[in-house]
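Hello, quick one for you while I still have it in my head. Could you read through the record and tell me how the tokens relate to the sequence? No rush at all, and the record is pasted right below.
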Amino acid sequence: MKATERAEILVQALPYIRKYAGKIVVIKYGGNAMTSESLKQQVMEDIVLLRLVGVNVVLVHGGGPEINSLMDRLGKKPEFVDGLRVTDQETIDIVQMVLAGKINKSLVGLLETKGGRAVGLSGIDDRLIQAKFKDERLGLVGEITKINPECVYDLLAKNYIPVISTIASGENGEIFNINGDTAAAYIAGALHAERLIMMTDIAGILRDPKDPSTLISEITVSEAQELKASGVITGGMIPKADCCIKAIKEGVNKVIIMDGRVPHSILIELLTDEGAGTMFLA
């Protein structure tokens, strides 16, 4: 690419940079989107670039596949009820090791190597995410009762990228496993984020799951409810759509579900007029 072409691309991105400068963008990086080390590095580069042009990025991450892998190595079979992981004491120990340990610190390290300044947090730190028991069938799975965003604001004010793993604290010292999409929605709402980007392994909401050309690029909360009722939004997409709706109701301006396996999908969504995935609007 010629230098003039690169310069033209930067100029075209200027209105979008101006739009998001100083605003908060929460990115939920799902474990299913972490398909390769090279792609993960690309995502971290995108996040650092956004931070350097003035966007306040908060990274909330999952790690289901890695949790499953460690449980398998330890001879413990994962169990799920309504899409949520049944979490006994041994499982919460594994979840804490993988999410707050391995994945969280590896993402912080990658951001640092790409030139960013990052700090890893869990929902336990400064009681960022507080929760109670959600369902006795699920064990130590939490239902969020409160988000305390002060420590996140403090880090953003000092130009850090907060990297948050989704475990939470209870009133009596319990440690809860929290669904990553749900946590991202609540955190984005508490921060009054301009955008919540849900990076996963699907393109977005399709009218026909077998036909990628039927991608719905924009959808309102009421339209999403209608698509749920008609069976267009079904299966594993229902809880994701519910989290998007929750975020909108909590005050997030726009929410996007998109395929995190597409190179530079974050930049395509935020800094071009092309966009990516399905955008939820109020």
